[in-house]
Design a protein that fits this description.
By secondary structure, the chain is of the alpha+beta class. The chain is built from 3 helices and 6 strands, in the order βααβββββα.
Length: 155
């Protein structure tokens, strides 16, 4: 069976990355790992995040090509222990090797599941073909990050 997430994207289409795992931790512990700036820096990137709707913040990583390595974000939704969403904007208009500007939304949904938490990530809004590099790189990256979030939630 062909994995639809791995099929080549149609020209001028929009794709989402979806990653879901059950973590063996209570939603409160997972929420803490997702919303405490210092902890987010351990599983993702240095940041100035705060879980407050309207808060503008940045993630910082290694620059690539003409991109300065800064992701501009804004908190869009906060429902403690249940849902967190923020915009994710980065890239460069003249960075052909690494793709163009990415204007997307990251949404985390936490659902109690037995003695743990079903954690679902949807990173929505990858335009193809211009965001194909970012989509490919971040698809595997978000999967690895779930394990790091679980380690941090463990304590």
């Amino acid at each position: 069976m062909t994995d639809p997430a791995r099929r080549p994207a149609a020209v001028d289409s929009v794709r989402d990355i979806v990653v879901e795992e059950i973590l063996p931790h209570a939603p409160e512990k997972v929420w803490h790992a997702l919303t405490e700036s210092e902890l987010v820096g351990r599983w993702l990137m240095p940041n100035d995040f705060a879980p407050v709707v309207g808060k503008r913040f940045t993630f910082r990583t290694q620059p690539m090509g003409n991109w300065d390595g800064v992701v501009q974000c804004e908190v869009l939704e906060v429902v403690p222990h249940e849902r967190l969403a923020y915009s994710w904007k980065g890239g460069s208009t003249d960075n052909a090797k690494y793709g163009s500007v990415l204007d997307s939304v990251v949404t985390w949904t936490l659902t109690p599941s037995g003695s743990g938490t079903r954690l679902r990530l949807v990173h929505a809004g990858f335009r193809s073909p211009q965001n194909d590099f970012a989509y490919d790189a971040m698809s595997s990256g978000w999967g690895r990050i779930m394990g790091r979030i679980s380690e941090i939630a463990a304590g």
